């Protein structure tokens, strides 16, 4: 299991490693919305793992869904895309038979009023239980209000983990309401949860 966990971490982290440049966020109005952050993030060519030469199918899938959303055209079969600008949350779901691909995006206003934190989260499920795929994972970008740029960053205040020493898989739920992240530990005996609480500039248990 440890080798598989490391493979997942390596495959997903190349998304951040290969994208060193800041991501420009274009918007109209007084401030950007989750739609502005999402489109800026998805517009970058992050859909291929340069070291492995493999397409990130989940990234390409939500990007195509977002293009349908922008163009006002129907989503592909089995796909739903929910865009909640009021609460700063996006949910993409692809469901087929017992399989579900779930992608979330959201952001937080930092207490310095100069930055925002943006998160992109991918999770795969089978029969309602977490079943991690190759590109599952959670990444963060920090937004500079003055520069209007997103820059990849480490998880603020905690370390993202995908598996534990006692054999549990780990998945994350981003908040649609509230500000805290739910951490799910998928043990063979069942699921337990912890909460990462937002403190204005990062998270802590």
Highlighted features:
205 residues, alpha+beta, four-stranded antiparallel β-sheet, 14 strands, 20% helix, disordered N terminus
Mean pLDDT: 89
General form: globular
Number of strands: 14
Number of helices: 3
Task: Pick out the low-confidence regions.
Answer: 1-19, 49-53
- The separation of the N and C termini measures 26 Å
**Helical fraction:** 10-25%
> Main β-sheet, in a few words?
8 strands, antiparallel
Structural class by helix and strand composition:
alpha+beta
H and E string: HEHEEHEEEEEEEEEEE
User: Which range does the strand content fall in?
Assistant: 35-45%
Describe the protein in words.
With 205 residues, this protein is of the alpha+beta class. The protein has helices spanning 2-17, 34-43, 57-71, and strands at residues 23-24, 48-49, 54-55, 79-84, 89-96, 99-109, 115-126, 129-130, 137-144, 149-153, 169-173, 181-187, 190-198, 203-204. Strands 1, 4, 5, 6, 7, 8, 9 and 10 form an eight-stranded antiparallel beta sheet that branches. It has a four-stranded antiparallel beta sheet with strand order 11-12-13-14, with no helix packed on it. A two-stranded antiparallel ribbon has the order 2-3. Strand 9 (137-144) and strand 10 form a beta hairpin. 29% of the residues are buried. Residues 1-19 and 49-53 have low confidence and may be disordered.
């Amino acid at each position: 299991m440890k080798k598989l966990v490391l493979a997942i971490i390596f495959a997903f982290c190349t998304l951040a490693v290969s994208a060193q440049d800041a991501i420009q966020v274009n918007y109209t109005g007084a401030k950007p919305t989750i739609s502005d952050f999402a489109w800026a993030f998805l517009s970058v060519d992050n859909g291929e793992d340069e070291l492995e030469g493999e397409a990130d199918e989940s990234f390409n899938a939500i990007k195509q869904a977002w293009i349908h959303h922008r163009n006002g055209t129907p989503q592909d079969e089995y796909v739903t895309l929910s865009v909640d600008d009021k609460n700063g949350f996006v949910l993409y779901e692809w469901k087929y038979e017992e399989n579900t691909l779930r992608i979330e995006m959201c952001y937080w206003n930092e207490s310095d009023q100069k930055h925002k934190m943006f998160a992109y989260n991918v999770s795969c499920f089978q029969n309602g239980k977490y079943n991690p795929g190759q590109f599952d994972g959670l990444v963060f970008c920090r937004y500079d209000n003055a520069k209007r740029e997103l820059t990849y960053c480490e998880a603020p205040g905690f370390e993202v983990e995908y598996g534990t020493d006692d054999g549990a898989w780990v998945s994350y739920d981003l908040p649609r309401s509230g500000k805290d992240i739910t951490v799910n530990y998928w043990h063979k005996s069942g699921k337990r949860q912890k909460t990462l609480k937002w403190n204005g500039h990062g998270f802590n248990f």
